[in-house]
Write a structure and sequence with these properties.
Layout: H1 2-16, H2 23-43, H3 47-69, H4 77-103, H5 110-118
Helix pairs in contact: 1-3, 2-3, 3-4
C-alpha cells in the first residue's frame, strides 16, 4: 500500500511539476486559474497576483511531491540544472504575459469575464 501511495504521489507531482513540457497548457494554467477564482471571491486580492501565485504554487507543489515520493529517482545534476533554468525562464515569460493581459483588462475572474463578454446587454 505504501508503494502504491508513493507512486500515486509521484505521478501527481510529475503532472504538476515543470519537468513535463505539456503540463502547463493542460494542467497548471487551468488549475491556477480555477484556484485564483476561488481565492478572488473569498479574499478580494488582485486577480492577476492570485493567478501568478497559484501557478507558482502548482509547480512548487509538484516538485515537492516528486521529491518526497521519489527521492531515489531524482534527475542527475546536469538535468536538474537544465530543468531549473527552463522553469525559471518559463515562470518569467508566463508572469510577463499575465501582467500584460491584466494591464489590457483581459485577465478577469469568471464573474467579471461573463459579465463583460457573455451577457447580452439590453438598452
Amino acid at each position: 500500500m505504501k508503494r502504491l501511495s508513493s507512486g500515486l504521489l509521484f505521478f501527481v507531482g510529475w503532472l504538476l511539476s515543470p519537468f513535463t513540457w505539456w503540463n502547463d497548457a493542460f494542467i497548471n494554467i487551468p488549475l491556477s486559474y480555477l484556484m485564483a477564482n476561488l481565492l478572488f471571491y473569498t479574499t478580494h486580492l488582485s486577480f492577476m497576483w492570485l493567478v501568478l501565485g497559484s501557478y507558482w504554487f502548482t509547480n512548487v507543489l509538484g516538485i515537492f511531491f516528486i521529491y518526497f515520493s521519489g527521492r531515489h529517482l531524482i534527475l542527475s545534476a546536469k538535468n536538474r540544472i537544465k530543468a531549473a533554468i527552463f522553469l525559471t525562464a518559463f515562470l518569467i515569460i508566463y508572469s510577463v504575459i499575465m501582467i500584460h493581459l491584466d494591464k489590457q483588462g483581459r485577465l478577469l475572474p469568471f464573474g467579471a469575464f461573463f459579465e463583460k463578454y457573455c451577457v447580452v446587454k439590453y438598452k
